[in-house]
Write a structure and sequence with these properties.
Layout lengths: L5 H9 L6 H12 L9 H14 L4 H6 L23 H12 L5 H14 L4 H8 L3 H18 L14
Length: 166
Amino acid sequence: MFWENEAYKIAKKITGGSDLHKDLVGHVYLLLYDRNIPEQDLPRTFARFAFNQWKWPGSDWNKQFNTMAHMVSLDYDIPLQSDDDNQEGEYQEYLREYMEKESTTDQELFIKEVTRMHLYGMTFRDIKAHTGLSLRVIHSAIKQFKYELSSNHPDVHWICQGSPDF
């Protein structure tokens, strides 16, 4: 039977071998349960649904489980700015503290991770290729980060020279 073996193989390929592939099969099964799908079309339909649920950030799967476990964490040890510029040292220190502060929500964590990728030199398209997020979502996350940074700390005047994006 398809749901006992083949569905798990397809899901494992889609998730890249993630342990979450078993949960994805159950989720997609519930999505397809009420539909009258012929047996011969079931593997193709299942694969399409599973892929969309796994990859799309706004899918029911990601909304319900709100998981970023399948996205690779980036651990860089690159300074955000050179240490020889003393005038902006306080801004650099403040930004580093803000980025290292523990996030209270998943949304805040997501925004910081997308911004961290951008600060370390990744372009929006690089971030898109790495995470599968749309350019609009990436732009919105970085814009939200700038807003939160400036509105939460209006006493710091963010006069930055460099990229017009940040």
